[in-house]
Amino acid sequence: xxxxxxxxxxxxxxxxxxxxxxxxxxxxxxxxxxxxxxxxxxxxxxxxxxxxxxxxxxxxxxxxxxxxxxxxxxxxxxxxxx
Length: 82
Description:
The chain is mostly beta strands. The chain has one domain (about 15-75): SH3 type barrels (Roll), CATH 2.30.30.100. The protein contains one helix and six strands; from the N terminus they run αββββββ. The chain has one helix spanning about 15-25; strands spanning about 25-30, 35-45, 55, 60-65, 70, 75. The protein has a six-stranded antiparallel beta sheet with strand order 4-3-2-1-5-6, with helices on one face. The chain starts with 12 loop residues before the first helix and ends in a 7-residue tail after the last strand.
């Protein structure tokens, strides 16, 4: 069985995305949108509200945080093994 780098229990993708946004770094995402989909680009906005948090990539693609499976090769714990 392969293993992947995963988030610790006290970490979230939001922290990674905020750092990338602040530094102007490109992000590489794996999303679960009724199947796994790749996305990449520069984060142009982060939208936080009580219901859901989302990011916006260049080109106005808006992504709900809850659909993100991996950021820059770091996976959610439930996707850690294959």
